[in-house]
Specification:
The protein is an all-alpha fold and 98 residues long. The protein has four helices and no strands. The longest helix has 21 residues.
Length: 98
């Protein structure tokens, strides 16, 4: 499933939107998602994709023009998450000091 398809599923489920109305060119503004809705969408994205949206990007999220742009942003977060996971040794213990 593509990132765009997963985003559409979130929007259909959480915002009661019609799947047929969602295209890559659909703007967030046309979906009438208010600022609280954007925050809720960010939480849903973090849960679904197991990524973390930096606090500095939360305000920027309101400025995404289209679902395609939002999908590209999520793809970047996924790539960053995967790159970090690749360099961290599996099962590495966190050192503590006494």
């Amino acid at each position: 499933m593509s990132t765009f398809d997963a985003l559409c599923k979130i929007l259909v489920k959480d915002y009661a939107l019609e799947a047929d109305s969602l295209t890559p060119a659909t703007t967030l503004a046309s979906l009438a998602i208010d600022s609280l809705g954007v925050i809720e969408l960010i939480f849903a994205i973090e849960d679904r994709f197991k990524v973390s949206v930096p606090d500095s990007d939360v305000d920027m999220a309101r400025d995404f023009g289209t679902l395609a742009e939002l999908g590209q942003y999520v793809d970047q977060l996924i790539a960053k998450r995967d790159a970090l996971a690749a360099v961290e040794p599996a099962g590495a213990a966190i050192a503590t000091t006494s």
